[in-house]
Amino acid sequence: MAHNSEETGERFRRRREKEEAHRKQLPGEDDTPLPPPVETIRGEGEKVGRNDPCPCGSGKKYKQCCGRK
Ligand SMILES: [Zn+2]
Asked: 29 CA to middle of ligand 1, Å?
């Protein structure tokens, strides 16, 4: 019995280590500086319809993304 629980603990620990290593490989969203805005996208004008897909490429509607206030 004791042996069994020991094994489970080891397994759990390895899984955690694996997850942590994987997390470190991911780019930190907070630490990664955003690329400079592309100049072809002009300002925050009303050129984009509020129900149109957002020009930032998020796939959301503009009013639910960058057009949100
Ligand atoms: Zn957007």
From this structure: 16
